[in-house]
Design a protein that fits this description.
Helix content is about 40%, strand content about 20%. It is built from 16 helices and 15 strands. It has a seven-stranded mixed β-sheet with strand order 7-6-8-9-10-14-15. Strands 2-1-3-4-5 form a five-stranded parallel β-sheet, sandwiched between helices. Helix 2 packs parallel to helix 13 and helix 13 packs across helix 14.
């Protein structure tokens, strides 16, 4: 990633952050600050570079951003992404650490637009951060793409012109999980729930319980726990779950929290008594390896990684990523960053084709991305909800199995779901759609 010097140069603090991230990502190239020689498209990238969400989410997303931008700038990505840069504009990046909380991220966002003069920002993993920065970008009339964060509230409770999310929200994960359990005739009369006590965890829990209410109307919640985000220690919660065994243990925990929960609960036999069901669990597989219980029912918030369908674009992305970062599985955050960059690249080029080849304004970018569609390594992306500001996409669910020969967890018994099967229609909020029995859902199953 290149950072340009000039009137609005990169601060020492940001350079230090980028060096730390590059070191953590195993990127050995030195950080150069060349004098600007041509017009560029300046892009802010915000992802966790430190803290419990960095290893499994933030750094893989940052790695994908670096790889794709290098490919774009060389013109070496597959068609239709093979035009150099963004419409011939070299892409320059400013990378910011998402750690520090929502208030800090709002200020960092303002700095990116007002001090760094970025043309657009792609970022944010945490739902709380997304809920905070989206209104700030809208107020400034600046182009913002949320590449991750799963809370449906962002666009179901807000009305935006300049803010987009290029990945489906979390309702898809939970509808797909419930459909998978039903299609596999997995017994669920009782269920234990453990989710983080903030927007993502609360919304995931609500959507899963509602979806199970449609497909398993007699199932009852035994334990319903909401530990704080970043708790790290789950001895009390594991004891509570063990005292009231259930057919399944459902969780939307993620990052270091999920890793810690699995490592602490498995030795105590919790998952031998209950089927473990994870809505967003693929990202901890490289670090957990054979510590992840075989047979875990697992989603990846899309048809990503070990659950991805084979395609030329996915083969290219997987190989390109592994050529740099080794043989470990490519995880969901990398896929979602890639599909965001691909969508923004096509939007820039669409806007430039319309405006005579000039760098597009935020208004022109928003018009180009709104309601658009494109192919990604994880499948076809459609900006179909929230007046074209919110994506829907396909998803896959499978079971885990550790492969000693490959020294990694692989997926078995995979089931793919079309976007229109597990996402609400444009005229309904997700929870209303689920509670109404999924009207209009188009499923092959």
């Amino acid at each position: 990633m290149k950072l340009q010097s000039g009137t609005h140069g990169v601060t020492t603090k940001r350079i230090t952050k980028l060096r730390l991230w590059m070191a953590a990502a195993g990127i050995g190239a030195s950080l150069a600050l060349p004098v600007q020689a041509q017009e560029t498209f300046k892009l802010g990238i915000v992802t966790f570079l430190s803290g419990p969400a960095a290893e499994s989410f933030g750094v893989p997303a940052g790695n994908a951003a670096k790889i794709l931008i290098e490919q774009f700038n060389k013109g070496s990505a597959p068609a239709p992404y093979n035009k150099k840069g963004f419409g011939g504009l070299t892409v320059e990046t400013v990378v910011v650490d998402e750690a520090g909380g929502a208030t800090k991220q709002v200020q960092e966002l303002r700095n990116l637009y007002q001090r760094e003069n970025v043309d657009a920002v792609i970022g944010y993993v945490g739902s709380g951060d997304c809920l905070a920065v989206a209104p700030a970008a809208e107020e400034m009339k600046k182009f913002l793409v949320l590449f991750d964060c799963g809370s449906p509230r962002i666009f179901e409770e807000g009305n935006y012109k300049y803010v987009f999310r290029t990945a489906a929200h979390g309702a898809m994960d939970n509808v797909a999980l419930a459909r998978y359990l039903k299609s596999r005739n997995i017994k669920v009369e009782t269920m234990n729930l453990i989710n983080q006590d903030y927007a993502w965890g609360q919304d995931s829990r609500t959507d899963f319980v509602a979806a199970m209410g449609q497909l398993y109307p007699n199932a009852k919640a035994a334990g319903d726990l909401l530990p704080k985000f970043g708790a790290g220690q789950y001895g009390t919660e594991i004891s509570a779950l063990a005292r009231q065994p259930a057919d399944i243990v459902y969780s939307s925990l993620w990052g270091g929290d999920l890793q810690a929960f699995v490592l602490q609960a498995a030795p105590r036999g919790l998952f031998k008594r209950s089927q473990l069901v994870l809505s967003a669990g693929d990202h901890v597989l490289p670090s957990l390896g054979d510590k992840m219980p075989d047979g875990t029912v697992l989603g990846a918030r899309g048809a990503y990684g070990i659950l991805a369908a084979k395609s030329p674009l996915n083969d290219w992305f997987w190989k390109t990523y592994q050529d740099v970062h080794g043989p470990a599985a490519v995880v969901q955050a990398s896929y979602r960053m890639a599909q965001s960059l691909m969508g923004v690249k096509l939007a820039v080029e669409k806007a430039m084709a319309k405006n005579g080849g000039k760098k597009p304004t935020p208004e022109e970018l928003a018009e180009a991305l709104r309601g658009s569609e494109w192919d990604s390594p994880g499948g076809h992306i459609k900006m179909a909800l929230a007046n074209g500001q919110q994506a829907i996409q396909p998803i896959a669910i499978g079971r885990t199995k550790y492969d000693p020969a490959k020294k990694m967890v692989v997926a078995t018994d995979i089931q793919h779901f079309k976007a229109e099967c597990v996402n609400p229609p444009a005229n309904m909020k997700s929870l209303d759609w689920i509670k109404a029995g999924f009207p209009g859902a188009k499923c092959d199953q």
